[in-house]
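Sample pair:
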Amino acid sequence: MQTLQTKYAGLTLRNPIIIGSSGLTNTVDKIKELERAGAGAVVLKSLFEEQILMQSEHLLKEAESYPEAYDYVREYVKSNDIKSYIDLISDAKKYTSIPIIASINCYEKGSWADFAQRIEFAGADAIEINILKISTDIEEKPGEYEQLHIDILKEVKSKVKIPVTLKLGQRFSNIVGVVNQLKANQVDGVVLFNRFYQPDIDIHKMQFTSGTVFSCSSDFSNTIRWIGIVSGKVPNLNLAASTGIHEPETVIKAILAGASAVEICSILYQHGNGIISQMLTVLEEWMTEHGFSSIDAFKGILNFKNVPDQSYYERVQFMKYFSNRD
């Protein structure tokens, strides 16, 4: 009997389609719609550390004659934002049956570990940590950025018993090494990759502006490369593929490369929730055609370890491709 069920980060999902953290998952009604559309799990819209700090600063400017109020205002804003987030988790668990993964978006160590405890108590099935930071400090030593991920993971893991995953960006000198260190520190899953804010410049107004918001299909080539490499080099670790998952076939490709699940977002904004059932139909038909009864039966069979020619994942392929072109 065929099943689309998959294991990811200690969770059992009815299928490998996870809805990524976004405005698509910021209300219970939206989550219920995603569940009806066939989603295997959702990652709630992130609570951003910067968002809390900016709101605190705004209120403090209005009361700048009271500098002693700084700590009080900052804590007040944070407490209210966290309460709303906790309520979302509780309500989502009450009215839906798919796994609810909370999301913390931070850029430094701090009180997020204590917040993680409240997330667990509210009923979240897991926590996904996003560390959105670009190193711009000339005095920062090489390796500090990578160590930040390890430190935050250890801090959160020390406070909760539910699974903790990390969603990584692409700006590492050694992605495999970082993932291996995360595994050594008991991470329950890793998502490859986070998509950073894309800046642009308006040449008429001569100012920075927002670039392309959504990912595109071409982004998937880098995702699948690293899913395949990491899956082959760091075994027995659940991976989720993210960024560039736009066609139904990319779900199959990600699993063949070693992913246990995929996170989708941009494609839902562009084409609606109906794409979920399309992806699942294509996946199920492909499995039937090739005689696979489960996700585990073909997961990772084309990862870095299992392909006969590992140059497919490396720069040699670039030379092979262009060697016959003028």
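The chain has a mean pLDDT of 85.
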